[in-house]
Amino acid sequence: MNTLVLKNKFRSNATLLTNEFIDEHMPKANGEFIKVYLFLLRHIDTLDSSISIPAIADCLNNTETDVIRAIKYWENQGLLVLDRDSDENIVNLEFPPIPVPHHRERRKPLEHSLSSIDVGNVASDTDSATAFSSMPHTVPEPPIPFEPYKAKKSAEELKTVLHITELYLGKPISSTEAESIIYLYEDLDMSADLIEYLIGTCVDNGNKSISYINKVAFDWHDKGIRTVKEAKVESRKYNKIYSTVLNTFGIINRGLAKQEINYIDKWTNQYDFGLEIIEEACDRTIFHTSQPNFKYADSILKGWYKNHVSTLEDIHALDKQHDQESEAKRAIESKIKPRTSKTARKTTDNYEKRDNFDYDSFAEEQIKARIAARNS
């Protein structure tokens, strides 16, 4: 009796997801939680590397707090088992078997259905089952090793961050302002050093507003800035733009005012212009107004933005187009003959008549009339 040998030459780079997860857990779970679960499941086969919470957050474009929240959710659902150390750091994670609800009928094992396969000259059910059972079983995967991660940030560190904020701002902060800093620290997961550098940079640029500090923090977060080193690179870029504007406008012995900084931030963030284009707009502002006029420069840049300018070559092309249109307009106006109005003709006639008037005779007649009036 021939033995049925099963061979699998279809080896795909795929992740196995159970039907129980799709049927029972996926419909009621948050979409972000599902993303975290699938990401972990995909990396269960990577035995020679470890996964960190920050790495997961970066890959999924999410916060570390949301990743932890998702992991805890799946732990509560019984789909993940976490190992923690004495400091509540997550050190290991493993996937236990997903329990099948009692009301669902289990599928029949594959070995009981081999006899229904219609192939020529196959072994009997007993031999087929024996051949199938002799295949090596899948070895359970080891748990995913985690890089140590502090689940709860230090309350003392948070107090230090709030104290440093008050020192930089030079005043006690309100409860609302404190909540904003706490949000940066806990929800955006900014480190104490990064928050200190953030506030110091904003204050040095003349901005002590918490709303402005939050604006910069969100901008850094969206750009993936997570360390002081990365923030310094970003700050140097902005400082170069600020200094270039000051030098081009000839502003000395003072820094930028808040409204002026808002203009520059608008040019870089909203209009997405580089240093060369901003400098060109400032040069033209000085040429036309002979003074540092941020509003005038903004009108120039706004026009370039509407015309989709991205390089100096685009600006030169617009200048050439404007010159051609102006020249064509002057040519049309030069062909129109000047016309003399009726009012102009009347005025000319009046002057001509006055030029022929005999003032001496008129004066003599007036004198004679006055003498006759007195003698009568």
Computed CA radius of gyration, to the nearest angstrom:
41 Å
N- to C-terminal separation?
A: 166 Å
How many strand segments?
3
Low-confidence stretches: 105-139
Q: What series of H and E elements makes up the topology?
A: HHHHEEHEHHHHHHHHHHH
The percent range for helix content is 55-70%
Count of the separate structural domains: 2
Strand order of the largest sheet: 1-2-3
Topology:
Layout: H1 19-25, H2 31-42, H3 53-59, H4 64-76, E1 81-84, E2 90-94, H5 125-133, E3 144-145, H6 155-169, H7 175-186, H8 192-204, H9 210-222, H10 228-249, H11 258-270, H12 275-289, H13 294-306, H14 312-334, H15 342-355, H16 359-375
Antiparallel strand pairs: 1-2, 2-3
Describe the model:
By secondary structure, the chain is mainly α. It has 2 domains: 19-145, Arc Repressor Mutant, subunit A (Orthogonal Bundle), CATH 1.10.10; 155-315, no CATH class. Helix content is 58%, strand content 3%. The protein contains 16 helices and 3 strands. The protein has helices at residues 19-25, 31-42, 53-59, 64-76, 125-133, 155-169, 175-186, 192-204, 210-222, 228-249, 258-270, 275-289, 294-306, 312-334, 342-355, 359-375, and strands at 81-84, 90-94, 144-145. A hairpin with a 5-residue loop joins strand 1 (81-84) and strand 2 (90-94). Helix 2 (31-42) crosses helix 4. The model is unreliable at 105-139 (pLDDT under 50).
